[in-house]
Amino acid sequence: MNSITIDRNEILKRYKYIDKNTHKGIQGHALLIGGSYGKIGAMCLSSKAALKTGCGLVTAFVPKCGYEILQIANPEVMVITDEHEKHLSEIDFDMKPNAIGIGPGMGQERATEKAFHDFLSNTNVPLVIDADALNILSQNPSSMTLVPSKTILTPHPKELEWLIGKWFTEEEKFQKTIAFSVVNKVLIVMKGAPTYIIDGEIVYLNTTGNAALATAGSGDVLTGIITSLLAQAYKPCDAAILSVYLHGLTADIALPETGYQSFIASSIIEYLGKAYLS
């Protein structure tokens, strides 16, 4: 299998420098949707990551139980809530975000499944699908027809297996993932060590990151980063490539200071500034 290596040169081809005269209104508005009782932290991580990746405005859509948590944890993030206290039951908002990330901590309640299906039926905004939203998709394969072209899916290995079926060799895994990407016209960020991005028949291999990233919430942060870059008008493939590179680079920069054991998902967010500066 041939792949394109994501290194510094590939990143610099895609990276957009910030205009010195820009303002928050033209730096993109990202909407993150998810959370459920006991899993609001996933939304705190993803929304803060979106801000720290340069998005001008970030809104989080969560069940009512997440309102105070998010307002206190991330005062820079705007918050809107579902009618239900503990899980999402209807995804309804009066705004026009530039990109949406959905799934972190969302849960798989029946009402949430229906809300997600209805959401897919009515959106054409650049989209990132992660976590429980991916699991709902894998349980309802016909819903893939509703997923907009060039949507970014971010499965970890088990979520990937649920989406494409079991594989017995690495070669078969890539064959199945490429076929899934081609048929459904989606990009797949195959999270792992290393992480690959599948864009149809083109495969990209990320070169940053280390074992410190194997920590709870790491994927939620990645979803926030990708959604942020999509909202800032990066093309989906460029957003995915730059995001996985930055995400991994934070761990590479932090490692001499934190070691493997003390690096957590919020450390990724903390080191994003140094990753950009590098």
Short description:
Helices cover 43% and strands 14% of the residues.
Describe what you observe in this structure.
The protein has 278 residues and is α/β, with parallel strands linked by helices. Helices cover 43% and strands 14% of the residues. A ten-stranded mixed beta sheet has the order 1-10-9-8-7-6-5-2-3-4. Helix 3 links the parallel strand 3 and strand 4. The longest helix is centred in the C-terminal third of the chain and has 23 residues, at 236-258. It is globular and about 45 Å long. The two termini are 31 Å apart.
Kindly, what is the distance between the CA atoms of the first and last residues, rounded to a whole number of angstroms?
31 Å
Evaluate the radius of gyration.
Answer: 17 Å
What share of the residues does DSSP label as strand, in percent? 5-15%
Helix content estimate:
40-55%
Helix-strand pattern: EHEHEHEEHEHEHHEEEHHHH
Strand order of the largest sheet: 1-10-9-8-7-6-5-2-3-4
List the main descriptive attributes of the protein structure presented here.
alpha/beta, single chain, ten-stranded mixed β-sheet, 278 residues, 14% strand, 11 helices
Topology readout:
Layout: E1 4-6, H1 8-14, E2 29-33, H2 41-52, E3 57-62, H3 67-73, E4 78-81, E5 99-102, H4 110-121, E6 127-129, H5 131-139, E7 152-153, H6 157-164, H7 170-184, E8 187-190, E9 196-199, E10 202-206, H8 218-231, H9 236-258, H10 265-270, H11 272-277
Helix pairs in contact: 2-8, 5-6, 8-9
